Amino acid sequence: MTVFSRDMSNNMIPTIQPGELDPFTNLTRLILQQNNISALGTNLFQHQTSLQELDLRQNSISEVQAGAFNNLGSVIRIYLQDNQIVFLPTFPSLGSLNVLNLQNNKIENIGQECFANLPNLGSLNFNGNNLACDCNVYSSLVAVINALSQGRAAVCVSPPRVASVEFYPGGSYEDQPVQDFTCCMYSEPTRDTLFALITSSE
Hints:
Elements (H helix, E strand, L loop, with lengths): L4 E3 L21 E3 L7 E2 L12 E3 L7 E2 L12 E3 L7 E2 L10 E3 L7 E2 L12 E3 L5 E2 L2 H8 L11 E5 L7 E2 L23 H10 L2
Parallel strand pairs: 1-2, 2-4, 3-5, 4-6, 6-8, 7-9, 8-10, 11-12
Antiparallel strand pairs: 12-13
């Protein structure tokens, strides 16, 4: 018997192991809400190429690895609200994605051009996060500004100069100077640099 919908909500699932979902290749709807899932690994849903709805709301997800949503070219709706996500990596090409709910997480930062591969995104809910708004956050949100609304707005929490700035059509971001959304260029110190710093302080 072919299964097209699988509801595994309210099962206290702590994790999804690599390959655990591989047999379910015909799924169009996967409901995993209200579990204890803490992380989404790379290629976790790689064989769910027919999936149209992925519901992961109300878990304990704090880590989303790059490529977690690879191969979900048919997905229309992804629900990730009410989790603990701090960093949101850039989404892969999801040409059918229309609804993305990220409300009530702890998102501080996002990947470069985070939503650039979501050409049909029509509804984005970013309300209730902890955005540290730099130039990348600015450009990523402006690129999908029409998917946001006042009730689903992305709101900057820091730095102080842009705190409370809201992103949605007609939001206060339009009145904020773009140069206030700065990006700091940072590179890891090399071993030689660290050695020089140590020896200079002796």
